[in-house]
Design goal:
Elements: H1 3-43, H2 51-70, H3 72-109, E1 111-113, E2 120-122, E3 136-138, E4 145-147
Antiparallel strand pairs: 1-2, 3-4
Helix pairs in contact: 1-2
């Protein structure tokens, strides 16, 4: 363990211990303050320890904050262990749909769409199988076959 990790572990231990102490003290003060208020109401007197509520709640909040810092790793590990199986189940259920979409995209990319009728044609076809429209044009400079919407030849770079 490195020196930084050791310091971190000590700080977490301090937060856990102080968090418990502050939480218990805050609860004790708040309960004492409320008890003083309710006892005074029954006896029709002024509460003598009502100030304990004003001190107890901030001390309780600081204690809970320290506990949260001290146990953050444990909270996060618990949340991860609860969430990962849900994500794995969702991924398994979505896998057939994702595979179907990937297959459709792969199938689309292996074909050329006819600009005349929209029919998907094999990549190596020179003419549409449905309407007979030319799927490529030839570069006037080098004779390379390029798509109909190309503005420059992919082989020689000349403007079409």
């Amino acid at each position: 363990m490195t020196q930084n990790e050791t310091k971190h572990q000590k700080a977490k231990r301090i937060f856990k211990i102080l968090g418990i102490i502050f939480t218990i003290a805050g609860l004790a003060l708040a309960i004492t303050g409320f008890a003083s208020i309710f006892i005074a109401m029954n006896n029709e007197e002024k509460p003598s320890l009502f100030w304990c509520c004003f001190v107890g709640f901030p001390v309780l909040a600081v204690g809970l904050w320290m506990l949260m810092l001290g146990f953050r790793k444990e909270f996060m590990q618990y949340a991860k262990n609860e969430s990962v199986p849900v994500f794995n189940d969702a991924a398994q259920q979505a896998q057939p749909g994702i595979s179907a979409i990937a297959d459709a995209v792969r199938e689309k990319s292996d074909s050329v769409v006819c600009p005349n009728c929209g029919n998907p044609c094999p990549q190596d076809a020179k003419f549409c199988e449905k309407c007979g429209y030319a799927l490529y044009k030839s570069c006037p400079d080098c004779g390379e076959q390029v798509s109909l919407d190309a503005q420059f030849c992919k082989k020689c770079g000349k403007k079409l």
